Amino acid sequence: MFSYRHAFHAGNHADVLKHMILLNICQYMTQKDKPLTYIDTHAGVGVYQMGNPMAQKSGEAQTGIAKLWPMWQNKGQRNQLPPMLHAYLQHIFELNGADELKHYPGSPYIASRNLREIDRLRVFELHPTDMRLLDEMINRINLPDSRDDKRVLFKTVDGFVGLKANIPPASRRGLVLIDPSYEIKDDYTKVAKAMKDALIRFPTGTYCIWYPVLARQESRNLVTQLERIAADAGAKWLHATLAVGEVQPAQMAAGLQASGMFVFNPPYTLADDLKAALPLVADKLKTDAAGGYEIAHSKN
Ligand SMILES: C[S@@+](CC[C@H](N)C(=O)[O-])C[C@H]1O[C@@H](n2cnc3c(N)ncnc32)[C@H](O)[C@@H]1O
């Protein structure tokens, strides 16, 4: 059950799509002078070391952040970047404190760096080692560094259970990231079930679902199901995919080639921000003609 370690995948093309969108939404939602609750159901470690043997062995950052980073290092190019991509690379630069890419941020780090004193953080991770590493990250975030503070909760518990227990949040404004590894087939079903339930408990929340785009039924079905769940709940949605090569049937065989983010109740600005940033990202990351991106959203 604990075979998946995100350290092998940190900074790959799928992380680029997921984290660019997460950061954009977080920055948007923290502009308003009202408390926000951020819930991360499958948190991972929080900050990844690019020199770590797992990252070195997989080399997956080479499919993602490593291809975008030179655009940040080149000041002329940096100033021309679309705002969404600029914000993402700036966030990584601030974590590293230099032009050299030694650390890569995970979702709880990205979100929590943008949270304010008035906000709340709910983080769930099942892997005991990752939870211990995550625990160390707590000192690097903007919110109080005490587990006793009600604003911050880090827990070794099933993220789907954690989500249910924390919605609707007291703040009534919430951003949720659901990012399982999907190594267990059940994850697809659990995501759909969790979303159906979440939109009943907390219909106005913003929910981001990451998933691997694969040439197999579970992956295709998930998107159909999520669209139906949104329609039934009357929720707006946005769906973005990024492919670096030809979509494969299995996640592990030739390496993941494409991924998607399905967002319920997205900020109205997200579609335009993505339209400005994704063409450049896709162009830099694609390895053959099958690479590209798609952005779709609800009509309502
Ligand atoms: C794709 S990784 C998360 C990456 C992270 N969200 C990020 O973007 O940086 C999935 C994580 O979920 C953890 N996990 C697996 N099943 C879980 C569950 N039921 N509840 C909480 N965490 C789980 C795994 O140990 C792994 O660290």
Number of domains: 1
What multimeric state do the chains show? Answer: single chain
Cα separation of the termini: 40 Å
Q: CATH homologous superfamily - what is it?
A: Vaccinia Virus protein VP39
Q: Could you estimate the helical fraction of the residues in percent?
A: 40-55%
β-strand percent reads 15-25%
CATH topology: Rossmann fold
Instruction: Give the overall silhouette.
Output: globular
The CATH architecture term is: 3-Layer(aba) Sandwich
Strand element count: 10
- Stretches where pLDDT is under 50 for at least 5 consecutive residues are none
Radius of gyration from CA coordinates: 18 Å
**In CATH's first tier, which class applies?**
Alpha Beta
Counting DSSP H or I runs of 4 or more residues, the number of helices is: 11
Question: What does this protein structure show overall?
Answer:
By secondary structure, this protein is of the alpha/beta class. The chain has a single domain, classed as 3-Layer(aba) Sandwich (Rossmann fold), CATH 3.40.50. It is built from 11 helices and 10 strands. Strand 6, helix 9 and strand 7 form a beta-alpha-beta unit. Helix 1 packs across helix 5 and helix 1 runs antiparallel to helix 11. The chain is globular. The relative contact order is 0.16. The mean pLDDT is 92. The chain binds S-adenosylmethionine. S-adenosylmethionine (SAM) binds next to loops. The site of S-adenosylmethionine (SAM) has 18 residues, from loops.
